[in-house]
Specification:
Layout: H1 3-6, H2 9-20, E1 24-29, E2 34-39, E3 47-52, E4 60-61, H3 74-83, H4 85-118, H5 122-140
Antiparallel strand pairs: 1-2, 2-3, 3-4
Bound molecules: zinc ion.
Residues 47, 61, 63, 65-66, 73, 75 line the site of zinc ion.
Pfam family, one: SWIM
InterPro entries: Znf_SWIM
Protein name: SWIM zinc finger protein
Length: 144
Amino acid sequence: MSLIELASNRSLWRGVYYYEDGMVMSFEKVSETIFAGKVRGNHSLPYNLILDISHPRKSTCTCPFAEGRRVICKHMIALYFTIFPDAYENFMKEVAAWELEEAESKEQHVEELRNDIAKLSRKELQDHLLNAWLEMEELRGDSW
Ligand SMILES: [Zn+2]
């Protein structure tokens, strides 16, 4: 699995923002698949990273989240996208395609509901509206 696939959603997106904000200070190629880098932290000192592309879980970062654990942190993601901007472009394209798909399936769902509702009688509509209304009140925590 790639670094991106191994990261939690939270680390991945925070890493995306770190990349976009230019938080990576420097990096160098150690070997074909290993990179060393420095990423700005929240405080004064930068974190030191080793990115192992072929074995992402062997990557290390000196931040409190990742130190001593085999997890992917936001700094690793930011460093990865800095070294491989194409991977960032591809990731964002995938996200855009996924969002479009979501929007289309929601549109389709609304259309189906609209068709179902069109078949209801006036009495059925009134009952459904009453139930929906009561449910909404309950969700809002209204009391009567
Ligand atoms: Zn880190």
